[in-house]
Amino acid sequence: MRTNIFKFLAFAFAFLLVYTANAQQYPGYTSYSIKNTSTAFLLDTNGTTYHTWTDATAKKTGYSTYVMPGGYLWRGIAKTGNSFTGGPICGEVQKLDYNGNVIWDYVYSTTAYCSHHDICPMPNGNVLLIAYETKTSGEVAAAGCSTYSGTMWPDKIVEVMPTGATTGTVVWEWHAWDHLVQNTNASAANYQTSIVNHPELLNINYNAQKDWLHVNGVHYNPILDQVTFSSHNLSEIYVIDHSTTTAEAASHSGGNSGKGGDILYRWGNPAAYGATGTKILNVVHDAHWIAEDCPNGGELMGYNNQGISTTASCTDIFNPPVAGYNYSITLGSAYLPSTYTLRQASGGYNSNEGSAQQLPNGNILVNMGISGYIKEFSPTGTLLWSKTLTGGNAKAFRYPECYINNAAPAIPTISESAGTLNSTSATSYQWYLNGQPIAGATNQSYTPTQSGIYLVCITDANGCVYQYSQGYSFAVPTGINELEEITFNVFPNPSSGIVNIQDTFSTGKRFDVFVYDALGKLVLQNKTLYQLDLSEYGNGMYTIAIQPENAKPIHTRVIISK
Questions:
Q1: Across the beta sheet with 155-162, what order do the strands follow?
Q2: Which among 146, 152, 222 has a CA at the least distance from the CA of 185?
Q3: Does residue 162 sit in helix, strand or coil?
Q4: Which domains does the chain have, with CATH numbers?
Q5: Per 3-state DSSP, what percentage of the chain is helix, strand, and coil (rounded to 5)?
Q6: Are 211 and 201 in contact (CB under 8 A)?
Q7: For a surface tag, which of 67, 77, 115, 490 has the fewest beta carbons within 10 Å of its beta carbon?
Q8: Beta carbons of 261 and 299 less than 8 angstroms apart
Q9: What value does the mean pLDDT take over residues 246-253?
Q10: What long-range pairs does 330-333 form, CB within 8 A, spacing at least 24?
Q11: What residues does 107 pair with on adjacent strands?
Q12: Which stretch of DSSP H or E encloses residue 248?
C-alpha cells in the first residue's frame, strides 16, 4: 500500500466529496500558528477565524502546531535559555485543551540535548520529538568522520509519555549516531568498503558539519508502526521501525522489519548513500504519509523547497516499494521510484520551511511558511483558495469539524480465542495483515489463515476519527499450510470507468472480487470477473480486493476520473 498513512494520523473525514469537473474546496477548518507568538488559529473555508487557542503563559510557538481529536492543541515551544542555538530550537512542548488551558508543559532541554523543529502527537497520547544531541570532536573522529573535525549535533527521535502536568517519561528513542557508515578509515568505527551497499546506514562523511542532518519533520504511521522524518541538509526522507525496543533501535536487528533501527527506506537524493540517480528533493520539509482516505493514501509526501528550481517550490508525492514491513531495493542501486508520482507547484518560492497535505477529494493544501501563504489547489493545479499571513508559519492542516469536536475512541485491543482474533467493541472495524487491509475483514472478529502481524482499525460513531490497535503477532498452528501467493495486474489506473484484471495463474482458477469506495462501502462484488465496469460510480478512489481460492488476498487502489 503506498501503504498506509498520514501527519495526521487520522485525518480521515466523515464523508468524501465527489470531485467533479467543477473544482471546489474541501470542507473543514485550517490550522496555523505564527512562530514566536502564543496564539494558534482555525480558519473556515472563507478564511474567517473559527477558533483560537491563546496560551495565558505567553510562551511562544517554536515551530509546528497540531490539532488532535477533541480540539486539543499540541505545539513546540521556543524555550528561553537553551544551551543549543540556531533555528528553530524549541526545548519544550505543550498540550492545550480547546479553551486554551495548558494541561501539559514539558521541557526537553539540557546541555546534552534539546528538542527542535517538529513534533508528532501520537494516537496513544504520547508525542514524538526531534532533538539534537552533542558529540565532541573526539567522538566525531572516532566514528570515522574525515571531512569535518568539530563538534557535531546529530539528531535523535524520542517518544515521550506524559506522566504529570510538567513531567514525562521517554519510552522509546532512536539515535542517528547508532546507524553510521564510512569507507575512509579502516581503523575507525563504522567502516565498510562500500557505502552504496549499505543504504540502511548514514554516511557520516556526506555533507558533514555541526548541524549535520538538520531533521525538520517527523510523522508516525500506526498501521506499519513506522516513523518517517525529513533532512534539510541531506535532502532526503527516511523511514525507520518504531516497533522496536529502545535497545533494538540502537542495533541492526529486531522489530517488525527485523532490522532494528536501521534505515528501512530513504528517498530524494541517491548520492547521499553513493547511488546513482536523479536528485529529486532539494531542501525538504514535512515528511509524512498521506491519509488512507485520499487518492494517494499510504504514499509519502514532502514539501520540496527548491524542487522545481532555486526560485520555485513544490510538493512531491512518491510511492515507496513496500514489501511487508520492509522496502525493496537492488543493492548498488537507488531506492525506487526514480521520480515522483505527483508534483504540485506552490505558485511561487518558499525559501525555507513549509508543509503540504493531500485532501480526500484530491486537493492539495500547501503552506508556504516563510513566504506567508496558505493555498489550496485542485487536482488539476487550479488555485481554489489562498490566505495571506503575517509572519512565518511552519505547518498548516485542514481538519473536519467532527475531528475537532469529538474525542477519539479508545484505542482497540486484540485478544485471541481458539485461533480467532477479537477486537474490543467499536462502531466499525477493518483488519490488517502486515500493514495491508484484508478484503472483507470488517467484523469484530477475524480468523487468520496465515501467520503475520495483525491489527484492527476502528472509527468513532461519525466514521470520522480512526484509531489503530497495536500489532498482534499470530502464528498459524502447525499442520495448517500457508496460502500460496498470486499476483494480479489491474489497469488502466486512473480509469474512466472500465478496469481490467489480469492474473498470473493458469486458466480455470477462480477468484472473488470486491470493490469498495473511499468510505469502505462495498459497491460491487462478483466472481472471476476480468473486467469491471465502474462507470456508473462517481469520480474518486476505489479499493479493488481480489481473493483467489487457496491463495493470499491482494488489493489495489484505482482512481476513477471521467
A1: 113-121, 127-133, 155-162, 168-175
A2: 146
A3: strand
A4: 29-405 (2.120.10.30), 414-474 (no CATH), 488-560 (2.60.40.3080)
A5: 5, 40, 55
A6: no
A7: 490
A8: no
A9: 96
A10: 331/196, 331/197, 331/199, 332/196, 332/197, 332/275, 333/275, 333/276, 333/277
A11: 92
A12: helix 246-249
pTM: 0.83
Strands (E), 242-363: 265-267, 284-289, 300-309, 312-318, 322-323, 326-327, 342-345, 355-358
Q: Residue 266 contacts by C-beta under 8 Å, 6 or more apart in sequence?
A: 199, 236, 237, 238, 239, 272, 273, 335
Would the pLDDT of 447 be above 90?
yes
* Residue 109 cell numbers, joined: 532541554
Q: State the average pLDDT over residues 40-66.
A: 96
Q: Is-contact 170 160, C-beta < 8 A?
A: yes
Compute the chain's Rg from CA coordinates: 23
Q: Poorest-confidence range of 294-303, 334-343, 507-516, 528-537?
A: 507-516
Max Cα–Cα distance, the chain, nearest Å: 72
Q: Give the three cell numbers for residue 140.
A: 566525531
Residues paired with 96 in a beta bridge: 73, 102
Burial tier of 63 (Cβ tally within 10 Å: 0-12, 13-18, 19+): buried
Q: How far is CA 543 from CA 144, 287, 427, 464, in A?
A: 48, 25, 21, 19
For 187, the grid coordinates are 581503523
Mean pLDDT of 356-379: 96
C-alpha cell at 49: 477565524
The partner residues of 559 in beta bridges, in order of sequence, read 541
140 — phi, psi (to 5°)? Answer: -65, -45
Cβ distance 496 to 562 under 8 Å? yes
